Amino acid sequence: MEKIKLQIKTLGLLAVLVLSSNLQVKADVVILQDGKVITGNVLQRDNDGVLVQMDYGTFRYPFSWIKDVRKETNAFPNVLNNSQRIPSWGKIILTLATNEWAHELKQIPATVIDNGVLQNVPYISFRCASGGYEINIYGDLDKPAGVEIGVINYLCKSDEAKINCMNFISSVLVNNGDEKIIRTLNLNQKDSQKKEGVTFETTFPDEPDSYGGWWISVYDENALTNARASGAELLAIKQPQITSKPQPVAVMSESASQPVVAAPEPAYMWSADELSYSRPSHSAGGEVYVRGYYRKDGTYVSPYTRSAPHRH
Q1: What's the rounded Cα separation, in Å, for the pair 33 and 261?
Q2: CA 227 to CA 123: how far, in whole Å?
Q3: What is the pLDDT of residues 251-274, one digit of tens each?
Q4: What does pTM read for this prediction?
């Protein structure tokens, strides 16, 4: 019996060492028809293609662009920071993608908010279940100041969907005490609780800026204030809510006699089609945040595109 206990302790210690070390992990490699190789985590495959999680933001590739998808060792480190009350955007979205109800997951353009506590706080936004759920992650994506999930559109009155939201938020929180607070929130009437500077609350469809949805949120108000972008930073990480549609480029494939349509780089600017999914803006000529961004030395910047060279 003592030997078994020792083995269990040893295995547990090894697991902690592996998880806490900044080692490379298995990730997915997407090989495109035109030879480009994209590295990231394949979150989901559905009728619209393959959704790949990059360093910051996600990009969807239709099956018509893809030659192969496979596992390889990739330079995405497995970073765990147990001191954070709200985990990184990567862990939040990876967790979201594992839920059966979170099908048809897609990132949508996040409309710039120009008033209130979220004024000029950058964020990324996702929808799933045919647009029935929306998830927003605010501030520095490595150290978010807030996260919320809501039920909108046809799911707005679904009690089961609200419970899914509560379970999801509970599953991503690192602090056991925070998770317990989420479990005690009243899902049927306005509720708000605070613990050590972090607010846990529910928001209802008839409240201002709820966009007609029901929401459960976790945020640090001081962190939100510190996460606000300056005018110069906003110029680097936003784009107009309306843009022209790019034309596809035909290139010659080395293995084919006919031209093929080149897949675009996983750009951090949104296409015209993608912009149609963004929330309406309160101001004329609204703007949205680019697909991904990060904070370098306290300054918000757009990331570079991560892709491997063409394979021949």
Answers
A1: 9
A2: 10
A3: 444 454 555 555 555 567 898 889
A4: 0.81
